Amino acid sequence: MKELEERIRQDGTVKPGNVLKVDAFLNHQCDVSLFDQMGAAWAEHFAGKRITKILTIEASGIGIACMAARHFGNVPVVFAKKAQSINLDGDQYTTTVYSFTKQKEFPVIVSKKYLEAGDRVLLIDDFLANGKALRGLIALCEAAGASVEGIGIAVEKGFQGGGDKLREEGYDVDSLAIVESMDPETGRIEFR
Ligand code: 5GP
């Protein structure tokens, strides 16, 4: 998606350790109009998949998932929680994910009430690097007996390989910007 690539070039900063910082419009301040365009792009790509639910992971996935839902007939958006809480009562599916940015493991939890057999799920997340976060969401869907109909990603770092592995396994991954290389010295970003 051209608008997203342009925005990354304009406002993104390349940090050491293969981290792209896009706080200006995605991970801290939110550009709702851009989110809306992203939702429209995913709706076009996943048209005909009869999505019944969007599943994402807190926190940065929530905004883009909610905007996307407006383009999928206002289907419910469920966000997996990263910490146990007293608000999470009763039965839940839980798995563990290794965080690329925080470099530690954390739990990923969803209540059985909100993810069910028969759900046709679109997974949405802000970034795709090695694919660990998505593997966690896929595991939750498998545990629930829900089918993963597609994966919508804002920014994929193609050089980290997580997206291509998922595509090889048959998942329909639609990343709106795929970074092929980025250089923390010069700040230069190349897209696929
Ligand atoms: P993965 O699990 O695919 O290795 O990494 C994806 C998750 O890590 C995303 O949910 C995102 O929160 C975070 N992440 C990975 N790489 C980056 C990055 O370069 N920039 C930002 N802002 N988040 C990232």
UniProtKB/TrEMBL annotation:
One CC-aspect GO term: cytoplasm
Binding sites annotated in the UniProt record for 5-phospho-alpha-D-ribose 1-diphosphate: A129, N130, G131, K132, A133
Domain Phosphoribosyltransferase: residue ranges: 44-155
Keyword Cytoplasm annotated: yes
Subcellular location: Cytoplasm
GO BP of this protein: purine ribonucleoside salvage; xanthine metabolic process; XMP salvage
Stored InterPro entries: PRTase-like, PRTase_dom, Pur/Pyrimidine_PRTase, Xanthine_PRibTrfase
Binding positions for xanthine per the UniProt entry: L20, N27, K157
GO MF term list: xanthine phosphoribosyltransferase activity
Keyword check for Glycosyltransferase: yes
Record-linked Pfam families: Pribosyltran (PF00156)
CDD domains tied to this protein: PRTases_typeI
Reaction it catalyzes: XMP + diphosphate = xanthine + 5-phospho-alpha-D-ribose 1-diphosphate
Top-level taxon in the UniProt lineage: Bacteria
Annotated metabolic or biological route of this protein: Purine metabolism; XMP biosynthesis via salvage pathway; XMP from xanthine: step 1/1
Keywords: Cytoplasm, Glycosyltransferase, Purine salvage, Transferase
Subunit structure: Homodimer.
NCBIfam families xref list: PRK09219.1, XPRTase
Family in the record: Belongs to the purine/pyrimidine phosphoribosyltransferase family. Xpt subfamily.
Biological function: Converts the preformed base xanthine, a product of nucleic acid breakdown, to xanthosine 5'-monophosphate (XMP), so it can be reused for RNA or DNA synthesis.
Database matches in PANTHER family: HYPOXANTHINE/GUANINE PHOSPHORIBOSYLTRANSFERASE (PTHR43864), XANTHINE PHOSPHORIBOSYLTRANSFERASE (PTHR43864:SF1)
Protein known as: Xanthine phosphoribosyltransferase
Organism: Bifidobacterium lemurum
Gene it is expressed from: xpt
